[in-house]
């Protein structure tokens, strides 16, 4: 086992190092270490929205040159959170334009007096564009003289690899693979990658120490299978949104842990980050618990011909560079998605998607690339360039609504047409129905819990037929209800969740739970006759 993995690492090492060279720059997730301190800036910030007609009054009056409160009335705004959901001011509920946040921060004295100390301000995320103004700067002198020490430790703190030199290449002494949860007898297995850098500067030696959790695994795609560590993997999971009551899209640890407990309860083994990269802490949890991720960039809304131009293309490529650079070290990420429901039937979209996909593959040759389509199989210009076909379809909801009896025939035709044309594995990346919790009707009518449950059951009949052939996954839309803009078709947001926005289960959640655990057990025992003691003792049993 150890020898085989050492050989695997010898093959993968240069590839991963080449990927790293292609993505030079970027910032590691801030972790405290003997040489690194972290100061959280979460909490209450001063806040003001620019309600002027052109939304640029703050720049014109240079609000940044004095305390924000001196420019006019301010609000207390918790960070992280979505300002739209916090205030009782109706103008903020759907406000689009510049808003201003201000926080006065006192740095530790040693940060400012030690000239060898590098201070970095990190914004976890900002939607959708941000300008950061800081009235204090620190310059850092560089050095070309350094020694790099790298060590890889297992969960028991045993050394499994080490190395020295300018590139820190590792020599593996023995390792275990990172496995997705519920697939095999092994739980997710992470190592601790320790890097120590000692540099000689004009001020004397300076050391830096960083620890990164890493996992070792392979991903491959055949004409009909998705393989993780050489074994077939079936995605049975959800699409999500970073959304909840009060906090909106603001990151919240209790909410994250609750969501992962619900994923465990469902028996889900995967989700897609629809339709943007999620907080890094989410991916860290996926690494830790073996939840597989389709990592999607914010390429959503590409619905018009004018969107597929060279300016958008260059920006889209830059965004993929940022996503891959940030998330490439997460073993849970097994595939990149470059867009959701683009107008891929357009000729201009074909070239556009071809270039974005090729660019992403060049950035990371180790992972397959896809985009999520709702186009017709015969007209889709981007499908020839993906590794996996991801399909969104809402039969008996947006099409032939109310006619549940048509789903099996329509879904069968969908799968067979796509596979015959492209000979690639398929994921049903979205399907579902809006449901108002507490609405009941028999025979089932739209928006009732019975209708959502019946619709899912019809999809599952066909999915069970095709998952033994070339369908490699199913992701329900959606994990939980989420807020949207007001419209006559939305009742306080999108209600396609199998959980409410408050994370309470609808009837469909129990149906999905029974199905996912059945699939998980089938998959689990197809690779291991003996019942796993590891899985029995894991938090996901």
UniProtKB/TrEMBL annotation:
Annotated ranges, domain Glycoside hydrolase family 2 catalytic: 219-520
Q: Indicate yes or no for the key word Ion transport.
A: no
Cite the Gene3D superfamilies for this sequence.
Galactose-binding domain-like (2.60.120.260), Glycosidases (3.20.20.80)
Q: Indicate where this protein resides in the cell.
A: Lysosome
What's the main place this protein lives? Answer: other
What keywords would UniProt list here?
A: Lysosome, Signal
Transmembrane among keywords: no
Q: Which GO terms describe its cellular component?
A: extracellular space; lysosome
Question: What InterPro entries does UniProt report for this protein, alphabetically?
Answer: Beta-gal/glucu_dom_sf, Galactose-bd-like_sf, GH, Glyco_hydro_2, Glyco_hydro_2_AS, Glyco_hydro_2_cat, Glyco_hydro_2_CS
Q: Which GO terms describe its molecular function?
A: beta-glucuronidase activity; carbohydrate binding; signaling receptor binding
Q: Signal sequence: where?
A: 1-22
**Sections of the chain in a coiled coil:** none
Q: What family is this protein classified in?
A: Belongs to the glycosyl hydrolase 2 family.
Name of the protein in its database record:
Glycoside hydrolase family 2 catalytic domain-containing protein
**Organism name:** Colobus angolensis palliatus (Peters' Angolan colobus)
């Amino acid at each position: 086992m150890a020898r085989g993995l050492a050989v695997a690492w010898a093959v993968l090492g240069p590839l991963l190092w080449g990927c790293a060279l292609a993505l030079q720059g970027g910032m590691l997730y801030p972790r405290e270490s003997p040489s690194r301190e972290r100061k959280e800036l979460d909490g209450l910030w001063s806040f003001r929205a620019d309600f002027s007609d052109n939304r640029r009054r703050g720049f014109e009056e240079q609000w940044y040159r004095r305390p924000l409160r001196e420019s006019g009335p301010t609000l207390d705004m918790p960070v992280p959170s979505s300002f739209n959901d916090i205030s009782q001011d109706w103008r903020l509920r759907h406000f689009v334009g510049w808003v201003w946040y201000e926080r006065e921060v006192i740095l530790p004295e040693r940060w400012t007096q030690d000239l060898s100390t590098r201070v970095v301000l990190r914004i976890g995320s900002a939607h959708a564009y941000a300008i950061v103004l800081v009235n204090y700067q620190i310059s850092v002198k560089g050095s070309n003289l350094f020694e790099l020490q790298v060590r890889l430790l297992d969960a028991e703190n045993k050394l499994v690899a080490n190395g020295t030199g300018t590139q820190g290449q590792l020599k593996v002494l023995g390792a275990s693979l990172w496995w997705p949860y519920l697939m095999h007898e092994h739980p997710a297995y992470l190592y601790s990658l320790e890097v120590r850098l000692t540099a000689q500067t004009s001020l004397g030696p300076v050391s830096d120490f960083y620890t990164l959790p890493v996992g070792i695994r392979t991903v491959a795609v055949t004409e009909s299978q998705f393989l993780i560590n050489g074994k077939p993997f079936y995605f049975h999971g959800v699409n999500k949104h970073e959304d909840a009551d009060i906090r909106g899209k603001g990151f919240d640890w209790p909410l994250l842990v609750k969501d992962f407990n619900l994923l465990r309860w469902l028996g889900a083994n995967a989700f897609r980050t629809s339709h943007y990269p999620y907080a890094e802490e989410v991916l860290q949890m996926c690494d830790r618990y073996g939840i597989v991720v389709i990592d999607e960039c914010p390429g959503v809304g590409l619905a018009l011909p004018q969107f597929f131009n060279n300016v958008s293309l260059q920006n889209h490529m830059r965004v993929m560079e940022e996503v891959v650079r940030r998330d490439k070290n997460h073993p849970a990420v097994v595939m990149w998605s470059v867009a959701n429901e683009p107008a891929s039937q357009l000729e201009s979209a074909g070239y556009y998607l071809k270039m974005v996909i090729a660019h992403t593959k060049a950035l990371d040759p180790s992972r397959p690339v896809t985009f999520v389509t709702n186009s017709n199989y015969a007209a889709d210009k981007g499908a020839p360039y993906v590794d996996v076909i991801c399909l969104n379809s809402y039969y008996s909801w947006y099409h032939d609504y109310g006619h549940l009896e048509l789903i099996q025939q329509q879904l069968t035709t969908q799968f067979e047409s796509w596979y015959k044309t492209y000979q690639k594995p398929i994921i049903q990346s979205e399907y579902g129905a809006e449901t108002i919790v507490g609405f009941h009707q028999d025979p089932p009518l739209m928006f009732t819990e019975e209708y959502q449950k019946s619709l899912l059951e019809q999809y599952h009949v066909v999915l069970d037929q095709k998952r033994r052939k070339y369908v490699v996954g199913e992701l329900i839309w959606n994990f939980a209800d989420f807020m949207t803009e007001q419209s006559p078709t939305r009742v306080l947001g999108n209600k396609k969740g199998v959980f409410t926005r408050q994370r309470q289960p609808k009837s469909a959640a129990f149906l999905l739970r029974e199905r996912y655990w059945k699939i998980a057990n089938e998959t689990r025992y197809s690779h291991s006759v003996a019942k796993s003691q590891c899985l029995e003792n894991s938090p996901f049993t």
